[in-house]
Specification:
The structure holds two protein chains of two kinds. By secondary structure, chain A is α/β, with parallel strands linked by helices. Chain A has helices spanning 40-48, 70-76, 93-101, 109-114, 117-136, 152-165, 182-197, 209-215, 233-237, 240-247, and strands at residues 2-11, 14-24, 29-33, 55-60, 63-64, 78-81, 170-174, 201-205, 218-223, 226-231. Chain A folds into two domains: 1-77 and 168-253, 3-Layer(aba) Sandwich (Rossmann fold); 89-167, no CATH class. Chain A is built from ten helices and ten strands. In chain A, helix 3 packs across helix 5 (117-136), helix 3 (93-101) runs parallel beside helix 6 and helix 5 packs across helix 6 (152-165). In chain B, strand 1 (156-157) and strand 2 form a beta hairpin. By secondary structure, chain B is an all-alpha fold. Helices cover 78% and strands 1% of the residues of chain B. Chain B has a two-stranded antiparallel ribbon with strand order 1-2. In chain B, helix 3 packs parallel to helix 8. The complex binds adenosine-5'-diphosphate and magnesium ion. Magnesium ion (MG) binds at residues 40-41, 83 of chain A. Adenosine-5'-diphosphate (ADP) binds next to strand 2 and helix 1 of chain A.
Chain lengths: 253, 326
Amino acid sequence: MLKVSSLEKRFGGLTALKDVHFSVTQGQIKAVIGPNGAGKTTLFNLIAGTLRPTAGDIRLDGEAIAGLPSSRIGMAGIARTFQQPQVFTSLTILENAMLGGHRYHRGDFLSCGLGLRHTRREEEKLRERAEKWLEFAGIGDIAHRNASELPLGQQRYVEIARAMATGSKLILMDEPAAGLDDTETRELGDMVRAISESGTTVLLIDHHMDFVMSLADEVLVLNFGERLAEGTPHEIQNSQVVIDAYLGTDDDA
Amino acid sequence: MSVVATLNKNPVRRNTAQVGLFLIAMLLVPVVFGTGYYLNMMIFIAILALPALGLSLLSGLAGQLAISHGAFFAIGAYGSAILSARAGLSPVLSTLLAQILVAVIAAGIGAVVLRLRSHYLAIATLSFAIIVELVIEEWRGMTGGMQGMLGIPPMGLFGYEASSDVQFYYVYWPITALMLLFALNLASSRIGRALRAIREGEPIVSSLGIHTAGYKTGIYVVSSVFAGIGGALYAHFVGFVTPATGSIMFAIEIIMVLALGGFDRLWGALIGVALITLLNEYALGFADYKKIILGVTLIAVMLVFPRGLLPGLIDLARHRRIARAA
Ligand SMILES: Nc1ncnc2c1ncn2[C@@H]1O[C@H](COP(=O)(O)OP(=O)(O)O)[C@@H](O)[C@H]1O
Ligand SMILES: [Mg+2]
């Protein structure tokens, strides 16, 4: 469903990504691993339209999306969570999740200002959609708290609920397990599996080797902006290039 | 479920109840206090509340400041004056038609300026305000130039015309209350939510597949139309307009209103207008000092209380209480 080819990104003199190609098939959980600074977040920024690629092609179900504004890519069906959680701290948790489904519901300036009945019905439906995903993310009971009251780790669940409420085909998760303890990481793994079972394809970045290897159907390894290897977790664990460059030396780079 | 809980769950009902009570109180004022010169001042408060509410929507929801609310007040005033006094339309119709002009211009400005990130709006709208002042002064055949326009018909419909302060009071306050309700509903709707999120992190809102530029332009248009309606009500109340109507000084007074009442509170805008009007009437009667005093106060308030004087004082009081309790 996602096909990336010859992708390149330069920041001035620095080449953050070079000739990266891979694809993600429908329904997969695919992981991107690699040491710090390998270009994983940059890759997500390119796919999501936060940054424009210097060169290369990105296709979502055949549609060329490289270089489109992020709102267009969002509409095309890609949602994301961020390495540093980016929740709206001036809104409640519920409102954060409601923004995920915002674009499916109607209500222009005039009908909202007039408080027309249909806008309130739409609002009701939007709230139900958001509550469903907050339940899913395990924070349904605190939906009315302000998002700023949550510790950073919990803000990640708000992001997940918000991303799922967009109803996207593909969700990009940037280090969702960062800062979680073992139990929380295991719960997150279950959540990612449930996301996948709900029909959403998952592309996720992570450092925790056990987590990635038990979760992913396929793994892409980046190293200094280049595609080092791609394969099943088993293949990656036994790949000599990967062991040399990364796995064997430092588990938590 | 209790009444309060029901009202909180349905913001439209809550807003309607609040504004309804407020309007009833306002309508009782002349009954209790009788007629008198104070009614004239109250009518001006109803009129000036509109540009203030408009700017409050823009600053409170989108976090943007515009210097164009004076200009749109002037376009509403002159537009409706020309359409009624020169083209013979009824004041209600001319008031509404003038808003089409306001909306089109605001949409044009918004489409160009709001596409850019950060705070170009203040600068761009300042230039626009200067142009509008020039056009009004120079286009003598239409606007009367420096002399202004006289003989603008009073607000009225089907041959009934408001002719006394009490009548204007009873026509204008319900209009202002309805506009306030519109603003409150908008702020508590999905649009208000989207705008508050855009203010905090526009790129993330975009990534959710939301077309953010459209929302920013939309709120700028609505905000400007509030000012335009205020201008038309002004013209059909005082009966004349001059280039001083809606000058840049006026735009700065509106910002001053929010500096007092709070940049992100719609009710605060109303309180701010009342305070400024009282200050103008009783404390700042001498024109030259007035500008200096206003300017200095504006800067002082913005420095000490970036969210506005009223919210600042409320926060201060709350902290005192917490500090004492601790
Ligand atoms: N916006 C940017 N401007 C300049 N350099 C950047 C930018 N984003 C990332 N980089 C650089 O690109 C490289 C890859 O970074 P990143 O994609 O964040 O790595 P990872 O997520 O794999 O740790 C790093 O050297 C980083 O400093
Ligand atoms: Mg990263």
